[in-house]
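sorry to bug you again but im stuck and you know this stuff better than me. below you get a single protein, a line of residues and a line of whole numbers that encode the local backbone shape. mainly i need to know what kind of three dimensional shape the backbone takes. anything you notice is useful, everything is just below:

***
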Amino acid sequence: MWSPRWRYWRPNPRLHRNPNPTPSRTPRILPTLHRPDLPPHKMGATTQTGLPPCFAIAKNSNRTLKMLRTRVISSLVAIPIVFVAVFVGGIWFALGAMAFGLIAGWEFTQMMKTGGYHPAPLVTLVLVVLLVIDSYYTSVRLTALVISVAVLGSLVWQLFQHSSRPTADWALAIAGGFYIGWGMAHLVALRELADGLYWIGLALLCTWAADSFAYFTGRAIGKNKLWPRHSPKKTWEGLFGGIAGSIVVAILLALISPLNLLTAIIVGAVIPVAGLFGDLSISLMKRDVGVKDSSNLFPGHGGFLDRVDSLLFVSVVVYYFAVWIG
């Protein structure tokens, strides 16, 4: 049976809108997210990500997982190479330390250029090479000669450079060479000791253990800032976690090596503190020139100098512990 069309007619909501609608209690979130005319804090967003808190937390979690995965992959590639060089020792370890020192020295000079300085890379790299050679060939002590050539030769070199701040550039070239070369030289000297394999293993393993335990402990329970001026992310909880992890590794290594247990525990407790000052020293320099990493050589880890900053302090401390106490 035929029915009139008006029976199927429905009012158009756009044309027949209620002139006095009842305000909804549900906030209009989605339309607000796509309004570029409003600042982030007006849209209920965080100031760091520009997203609402729920989305910001998810984004930060994904970024953290991606960074952690990249750090693990980089470590799996680098650690076997380092352990082979440490186990072989001799000239190969010295050459490896020299190569690492050259990379770190180059990164140092390029990092300083970001801050407006222009230290001569050649001066820094030559000084690194001379210091490592001096530490390996212990029968011929060249330390005084190395210092003389570095200081006086670099001054002569600076005379031929067109620099607006020659004194600062000269001082940075010398300081970078000594800072990196001195640490690498003590690393080589540590390996050349009678029980050098165990001492170098103690230095490397405890440094990496302290770094890892401090990282995860700080992320899990870190609340009290350690030194906000130089490293806002470091906490006291992370430091104590790093010390605990380093001591555990030192005890395990002492049980399978000729190292004295008490000495290993003491060194295991000192290494995280020395590594912390090495890390903070590089952070001080990076903050001065306005960079986050020394380079992008290792994904997730920054540059090579970022990876060896702790060892530059640890190698010196462990070497003199081994010579005077061990």
